[in-house]
Amino acid sequence: MVRITDVARHAGVSPSTVSYVLSGKRPISDETRRRVEESIRLLGYRPHAGARALAGRRSNVLALAVPLRPGIDVPVAMRFAVSVVTTARRHGHDVLLLTQEEGAEGLRRVVDTALVDGLIVMDVQLDDPRPTLLRDLDRPSVMIGFPADPEGLTCVDLDFRAAGEVCVEHLARLGHRAVALVGSPPEVYVRGTAFAQRVVRGFTAAADRGRLASTVHPCEASPEAARVVAERLLREQPGLTGVVVHNEAVLGPLIDAFEDLGLRVPADLSVTAICPDEVAASLRVPVTSIALPADEIGTRAVELLMRKLAGTAAPETTLLPPRMTERGSTAPRAIA
User: Fold this and answer.
1) How would DSSP label each residue in 216-248?
2) CA quadruple 231, 237, 241, 247: dihedral, nearest 10
3) Measured CA distances, 277 to 29, 53, 205, 266 (Å)
4) What pLDDT score was predicted for residue 102?
């Protein structure tokens, strides 16, 4: 099947220029238009999304790219997806869910061949290849997450750096002087996943400001891994009295592991987390936590995309401030 990228290569133009010729959304020189139209004729290209655009209609379908990569917390990802779908329906739109590792080329294919009006992109990496494409597409887009360079994009997310800082500052106010971050699975950091990296930066910056001893420990999402990390922390940081957890799958098992090793929560060890409120509140020891507002972020992403579809201005940056709820897992550091 001939793709829009084939037409662009044959005509010596960018794929977005081909899209503009098909849709008429931007002025194109007569010479370029003739060259593109000739390439379309010679190659036998049959535009799908372009035909819809030429007819001046919208599909009322949004694409949501949520690649289920190794290490991703699928239940959390699906909370975002449900929020996007629910909000889109209120605006009269359906959602095409993309769970494969689509990459930039996959998103281009969706725009070229599927009937979608706009895109929402999740699991953003700091060095993400997709923003370059999103800036060039003739479809509006919103990213749930912030790449290293968000200029020219519309991004929304929790302020994860501030979340890491707030957790450490809370422990410091309670007198804790040695803290650790139990983070996402190792592959999440290897990919440079933006939210995980920003939690580490916030955690480390706040610990350094407060002159706290601190360490960071990635952790696989299993009870066995939680036990291994707990044992390592007590071996390497015997003075440890405060822990921040950014891995909701191991939150309960980690508390159990520490208590099996002789540390009571919160009498001997205070624990904070960045996770959904219902998870933190439902554990045997309710955990002091920064809420992960998946519902609000998904709703904001759709509403920003609706504004862009309507041709109205939308802010490029929407950072939700962290909200901490204190529960029974934190207490002042015991003085021996």
Assistant:
1) EEE--SSHHHHHHHHHHHHHH-TT--EEEE--G
2) -50
3) 55, 43, 25, 19
4) 62
Place of tokens 């799908």: 48
Q: Match 């904001």 to its residue by tokens.
A: 300
Question: Would the CA dihedral through 260, 265, 270, 271 be positive or negative?
Answer: positive
In the block, residue with structure tokens 């960071």: 216
pLDDT at position 46, please?
A: 67
Exposed/middle/buried for residue 225 (C-beta within 10 Å: 0-12, 13-18, 19+)? buried
Q: pTM for the full model? A: 0.81
Closest by CA to 48, choosing from 13, 9, 12, 2, is 2
Tell the residue number behind the tokens 């597409």, with chain if given: 137
Give SS3 for 210.
coil
Q: Alpha-carbon distance 188 to 182, whole Å?
A: 13
For residue 323, which of 261, 277, 267 has the smallest C-alpha distance? 277
CA dist 34 to 6, 26, 37, 40, Å? 16, 15, 5, 10
10 Å CB burial of residue 43 (0-12, 13-18, 19+) is: middle
Task: Look at residue 53 in the predicted model and tell me its pLDDT.
Answer: 45
Could you tell me the maximum CA-CA distance found in the chain, to the nearest angstrom?
Answer: 83
Strands 94-98, 61-65: pairing is: parallel
C-alpha torsion sign, points 36, 40, 43, 47: positive
Q: Report pLDDT for 107.
A: 77
Question: Comparing C-alpha atoms, which of 160, 335, 329, 161 is closest to residue 243?
Answer: 329
Contact 215, 237 (CB under 8 A): yes
Helix, strand or coil for residue 291?
Answer: strand
pLDDT at residue 17 in the model: 86
Token digits for 173?
């106010």
What is the pLDDT at residue 20? 78
Q: What is the mean pLDDT of each run of 10 residues along the chain (336 residues)?
A: 85 85 75 88 70 56 88 90 95 88 70 80 93 86 96 96 98 97 96 96 98 97 96 94 97 96 96 96 96 96 94 92 97 84
CB atoms within 10 A of CB 254: 25
